[in-house]
Amino acid sequence: MKDDKYPSYARFKDISISERILNTIFLLTIGLGYLAALANMYYTHQGLDGKAGLSVDDVVISYYGSTTQTRLGTAIKGIMAPNLKFKSDQDVILSWIHSGADEAGYNEKVAPILNRDCVLCHTPSINPSLPDLTNYAGVSEVAHSGGATIPTLIRISHIHLFGIAFILYFIGRIFLLCEINVFVKRAAMIIPFAAMLLDVVSWFITKTIPSFAYVVIFSGALMGISMGMQILLSIYQMWFFPKDNKRV
After folding, report:
1. pLDDT at residue 185 above 90?
2. pTM of the full predicted structure?
3. Terminal alpha carbon distance of the chain
4. How far, in Å, CA of 246 to CA of 248, rounded?
5. Residues 6 or more apart from 152 whose CB is under 8 A from it?
6. Which among 81-90, 112-121, 230-239 has the top mean pLDDT?
7. What count of other Cβ atoms lies within 10 Å of the Cβ of residue 187?
């Protein structure tokens, strides 16, 4: 007789092989997508301090800014230098920045270079996480000292929150089928959402308090690790955990 006071819940052993295949393909695709996102983040932020590799200083410059260099100037002298068709274009852009980065100079000298070599990637519709180099307003943000602007952070935040929230929800729905301690399971589902929110909030705080860049790194790492653990444990229990039945 079924005890309604203690209802049984679905677990991986209760779902069909077809469902396991679908869940596994989804989780593996999300995992690969997240690795690609990490690579994109690395190449977006690394080298802003003039040194190879991603560092805390790069994160500080991205959000808080730098009093000694602009993001555009650092980029074309570092990671973005190979993208310029002619090396002399680097001097043209740097000269424009040092002379005040005015709109007239942008239209006459800088826009043709950026439109030819940079806008293929630096367009909001293609990559919203990269600076917008399609117009003077966007270029001006990175041609003057200072980090990301509030409008830019708001734009990236709403895309980040909407997109990742859906991903975490569907990963969590699959993870619910794991057979582990219920309190551990609940904590594991809450942590990535909390980390995501902390990550976004820390962007805005870092714009005022540069030392908060450590929180940006910590929260981003925490979200990635917790999400990865859900994916790996779900796949393991779907295929290698003892099962009582074999539905197809």
Report:
1. yes
2. 0.72
3. 27
4. 6
5. 131, 141
6. 230-239
7. 12
